Amino acid sequence: MSTSSMETVSASASEFDRDTAVTLRAPGVYDAELSAGWTIIHAVNGGYLLALLGRALGQHLPHPDPFTISAHYLTPSVPGPAVIRVETVRTGRTLSTGQASLLQYAEDGTEVERIRVLASYGDLDALPDDVRTTAAPPAIAPIDQCFGASDGPTPAIPGSSAITERLDIRLDPATVGWAIGAPSGKGAMRGWFGLADGRDPDPLSLLLTVDALPPTSFELGLKGWTPTVELTTHVRCRPAPGPLRVSITTRNLAGGFLEEDAEVWDSADRLVAQSRQLARAPRG
Amino acid sequence: MSTSSMETVSASASEFDRDTAVTLRAPGVYDAELSAGWTIIHAVNGGYLLALLGRALGQHLPHPDPFTISAHYLTPSVPGPAVIRVETVRTGRTLSTGQASLLQYAEDGTEVERIRVLASYGDLDALPDDVRTTAAPPAIAPIDQCFGASDGPTPAIPGSSAITERLDIRLDPATVGWAIGAPSGKGAMRGWFGLADGRDPDPLSLLLTVDALPPTSFELGLKGWTPTVELTTHVRCRPAPGPLRVSITTRNLAGGFLEEDAEVWDSADRLVAQSRQLARAPRG
Fold it and tell me: What value of ipTM does the predicted structure carry?
């Protein structure tokens, strides 16, 4: 992490919290503004959008934290105003389930649905502290040996890369071959993750983290965009302060689609989030 | 597979198709009957229920096959009448997205929602035939060295085991230690899967297959039920006829929850389905 990113930024002052803020307009209806600061290529980042939906759900439901959140991406979001409609599906003692839709407006003013989400929320702080995880943290080189957006050659990504200024991602040297035209051929992407302004991770920001690294398809030699069809994230533990480690793998690229499995580890060596998405494979 | 299971059963004559039939009552409303034949311990199997929802979605949406289907389980289903309500969320050229709810009736006649689902459907037969899967089929012993429900000691599962009569599951010897009180301690369950009446697999029956093996927690030495909170399944390829291989792993048992990742391979060595669920860990 850069020196600046080591400074502590209060949640209210962070770019992430400012840009995922939602304003209650009516019961179950939240206004939001999709920031152009989280775009990559031609799209608003799907993890950023998920965090917006996750924040609205957390405000609406009786439980605060996303335990499992399944998002189906319908149409491409664009920077600008949006509305989030939230419905409580079921309220239980330890879990409650909600549904949310993110909508934007067509030129004629009609609403167009961008994303629909089902999520079960709970209270991470109320969980027992048993840990029998057999998974081991991913092997990622030390931060100072990893590559950030300002290191080395600039990869040829067309269009916006605004999001790279808000993230402090350091990719493992073993998964940056794509940036110099020498992809490894392995469906893997690994690196350190932080928010550039130093805001510490929390369950909401993990929803961004799982979808923030370059797509594994880059390392498979495929350029171009991999639009997400569906992304489901399990948040399993409140992350400790400090940088996160993210490991993403793709094992099944076939029939024009691929899956991306992400796992996120915190500075205390806890597996704090697991996600899987189905995405369309790039054509090239 | 047993001799009887090698006989071909037409789809209409199969137990699975009969028990997942849905009857259109009104636009978007389907009547169903949850069969007691798919219960285990005290619950109706979640994969069987998912197949019912999947069938209703397939009839309602313009595309036939579930590509990715995310189910959040709300309350325990019981054998008997049910209604499925389906809504089209978006219709696209290659994918359409739908939402479905399975409901049953309380004693006073009010509807109680059991499961809510978001799903994106497509046409598996329209996909290009590129396959760049790096995953290898799971190492499972030959069928004749695996253990079926009628082989060896009967594991101490309380309550109903009706579903075992409808499935032809042969577990790998490496993952049956739990049945004789000697769990491996590894979060893995592997085996061959078929329907007992010999009906060949299809995209709908894969929704059952991903949730049909004993829970991995048995091999972690935990008895008791692991109720599913959320289950997302990707169907990636129409399965070839013949027995399937299923491999399920759990890497993160912590805080009273665990994930189960399943992959399903067909007789042509294609990875036909991948699923992940979040479940509550048994207490014991």
Answer: 0.94
